[in-house]
Every structure is written in structure tokens, then in C-alpha cells.
Design a protein that fits this description.
Layout lengths: L12 H11 L1 H8 L4 H22 L13 H20 L26 E7 L3 H14 L5 E9 L11 H6 L2 E6 L5 H11 L4 E4 L10 H11 L17
Parallel strand pairs: 1-2, 1-4, 2-3
Length: 242
Amino acid sequence: MSQQRPASGAPSWGAISVRCGLLALPPLCAVAAQLSAEQVLFCSVTSCFWGALEATILLRVKLTRACRRIPFPIRLLVAMGLDLQACWLLGSDVLPSRPLAAGSGRGGSVPESHGLTMSVVLPCANESTNAWRTVQSIFAATPSDVLHEIIVVDDASVPPISATIDPKDLQAHRARILRHDEPQGLIRTKKHGGDQATGDTIIFLDCHVKPRDGWHNGMLRRMKENPKRIVVPVITALDPET
């Protein structure tokens, strides 16, 4: 008697298990990278979706017939790429600052307690007037227990920024100036300021901004959730005359 062979193209449950296991990597990576609970949940849900889709492809369900023409490695890369992109977008949401109650904090607000201090680095080139306005605005809008220092990095301005601001005013606003005798460019100027910063967090701002009260809350909250994060604020229009 001849042995009966399995029908050609029958699904291999071992192959299904292996492929579904590979598609389950994103949530495991999200946990290992200490991403937020929302991101881990999102990766878990999408992994279940991709795994179910892969199972229907191997089981030759008519609905996914067209997908069978795409090799599995490409399907895997597409799934992981979409997961990564969506996870990044989910993690880069800019949460609005929580409303602050009126009280004794500087700027008429009671600061949220994050337990983090902030060094603000301002790379400036030929913006003496803007630099001083920005220092005053940051000092006025940031609680005293959060603002550790303001570092103005003067990238060879003419005249030097230090010549236009009284040192006593700088000290009163927790600010200091670093000076380049030769232009170094934006990136080196930021790096110089960041290397000299001593706060728990380093915030890089342009030399012509005016933060609103409570501007630090959303940023510090995000960074406290995951210290590996790089947080980018929303920059709105600014009237240079005010």
C-alpha cells in the first residue's frame, strides 16, 4: 500500500508559529526600550493583527490571496516599519501644559513638582537685544525650583553680547554668557553650551523666543516618564517688537 502524502501547499503550523513569533518582536522591543504604556499596548495590538493576517495568508484564505505574492521577509519589514513609524508618532505627541492655579510661583503660577531642574541653552549670534529679552522671558515664565541656569552662548557676535547686558542683571536672572572669539556655527555653539550645563535636563531654545507660563510642564513630564526621550516643543509665531 502506498502512503498518503499531505496535499501540496498545506499550511505548516511550525511556519505559522515562527512567523507570528517574529511579528511579536515589536512589543517586546517596546518593553525593552522602556517606552510608554500606550506605545507598548499599540505594538501588542498591531502584532496580533499582523500575526492573524499572516496566519490567513498561510491558510490560503481567499481574502488575502494577493498578499501571498509578496515574500514573507518583505511583509515582515513592512509590518515592523509601519509599527515603528506609528509608535514614533504616538510617542512624539505634544501634550498641552496642564493648567496652573494662581499662587506664589514666579509668573503667578504654582509649578508642578517634577523633581527635575533645567539648564536652558541659548545659542546666539548678533542678537544682543533678543538675547536679553529671551533671558527675561525664560526667567519670568519658569519656576525658581525648576530653572537651574540660563546659558547664553555668544557665537562671535559684534558687539559682544556681554557688552550690552549688565553682569548684575545676568546674575539676578541665573544667566551667564559663554563667548566664541571666532564663529563656530549653530551645532558647535549648542554643544559648547550643553557641555557646560549642570542641570538635570538641558533645554535648547532659540535666542528669540518667549515661553508662556507653564511651558516646562509638558517637556519635563515627558522626560521624567522616559529619560531617554528627546522632547521638542511647539513653536508659535512671535512678534519681534514685543
